[in-house]
Amino acid sequence: MTMFHCILLERKSTLTKTYLIMISQFKALTSRYLFLFICLFLNSCSQVGSQFSGINMYSTREELELGYQYSIELEKQLSINYDSLLNQYINSLGQRLVKSSNRNNIPYTFKIVNDRSINAFAIPGGYCYINLGLIDLAESEAELASVISHEIAHVVGEHGMENMTKQQIIGFAGAMILGARPTFTEEIISSIIQRGVLTNFSRGAELEADRLGIQQMHAAGIDPIGFESFLKKMRDQEKGESSQFSKMLSTHPPTSLRIKKSIETRTSLSRKKYDADDESFLNMKQHLNRNYKKSNRN
Ligand SMILES: [Zn+2]
């Protein structure tokens, strides 16, 4: 989730096309946000990240367009799973959580990736990707929902677009400082993407996604304890040697802190009776075990 950020987003082939899109966005927006230029000279790159946390200079329309273009490029790099039972289940669970979110006025898309590693991620515009390996690991609907809810929360919190905004600022600084050589601007943006600025959210954004994710689960009638339960699985993995979790964990705040914060969020919620695991979850798991357990291992 972006609890699990997919390292695939940092692949160079995707990056080249992606940063061209970003550059065109960058060029279109620089004149609109000239005031930010001043800030460039006052802040280092790392400071920009914190100074401008929460700023999104894109409109929803721009975000949807960017997300759409990005998803097309991204999906050329991924093996998308089209199993109708799995997709129906994941989409239905995802839309249930979206309905309970604070940003349900944009369309969300949920796709399953044929990848056995434990990972999920979201990109701007409501595109959420969940790896087969993660679905396999979840032992309850609440655990699976917790991951999906966290990803939805990144879209709700517009974290991807905040990162994009930061890149605009940093790229603009570089170009202006060195005489606006366009190729240099492109190099800066490319470098920022390769460093994972686009997909690696700040600690604050991650904790916000945890908090919003838990609230969405609560509102949807899904027991938020599933989030803690899944985090504990991650913590146990951390104790082991190199694991499938290691990469996604490296982009997130310490799991112990996330567990502590999630308990605080959960206990602050009103008392409520949550739904039991839907029968469709068990059907989906059986289907997964029958069809994907032994085959399709990447
Ligand atoms: Zn995340």
Strand order of the largest sheet: 1-2-4-3
Through-space gap between termini: 20 Å
User: How many β-strand runs?
Assistant: 4
Helix content: 55-70%
Largest sheet: 4 strands, mixed
Strand content: 5-15%
Q: What ions, cofactors and ligands are bound?
A: zinc ion
By DSSP (H or I, 4+ residues per run), the number of helices equals: 14
Task: Decide which structural class fits the backbone.
Answer: mainly alpha
Could you give the order of the helices and strands?
HHHHEHEEEHHHHHHHHH
| Rg, nearest Å | 19 Å
Mean pLDDT value? 76
- Enumerate the spans where pLDDT stays under 50 for 5 or more consecutive residues: 6-17, 30-52
Shape call = globular
Describe the structure.
- It is a single chain.
- The protein has a domain of 205 residues.
- Helix 1 crosses helix 8 and helix 5 crosses helix 10.
- The relative contact order is 0.16.
- The chain has 298 residues and is mostly helical.
- Bound molecules: zinc ion.
Which terms would index this structure?
298 residues; binds zinc ion; 5% strand; mainly alpha; 4-stranded mixed beta sheet; 14 helices
What is the element layout, followed by pairings?
Blueprint: H1 12-30, H2 35-40, H3 45-51, H4 60-75, E1 80-81, H5 84-99, E2 109-113, E3 120-123, E4 127-131, H6 132-137, H7 141-156, H8 159-177, H9 182-194, H10 203-220, H11 225-239, H12 246-249, H13 255-268, H14 279-292
Parallel strand pairs: 2-4
Antiparallel strand pairs: 1-2, 3-4
Helix pairs in contact: 1-4, 1-8, 1-9, 5-7, 5-10, 7-10, 7-11, 8-9, 10-13, 11-13
The protein binds zinc ion.
